[in-house]
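in:
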């Protein structure tokens, strides 16, 4: 897969993630993170908006874990 193909795949997933909310959005997180990790391993630059989305998804996953914790 070329870098252009990889970026195109990640951008397509980014679009799908941004259209969703809640559990559907978080369900796409593992694939998104895997693709970004692959980009980093191959030396491709990860655009800032993708890094920010990755951070946002991680924050949402942590918040989701604590939503069901009794207080």
């Amino acid at each position: 897969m070329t870098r252009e193909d990889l970026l195109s795949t990640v951008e397509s997933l980014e679009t799908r993630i941004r259209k969703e909310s809640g559990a559907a959005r978080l369900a796409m997180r593992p694939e998104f993170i895997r693709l970004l990790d692959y980009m980093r391993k191959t030396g491709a630059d990860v655009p800032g908006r993708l890094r920010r989305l990755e951070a946002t998804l991680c924050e949402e996953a942590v918040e989701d874990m604590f939503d069901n914790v009794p207080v």
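note: The CA atoms of residues 40 and 46 lie 7 Å apart.
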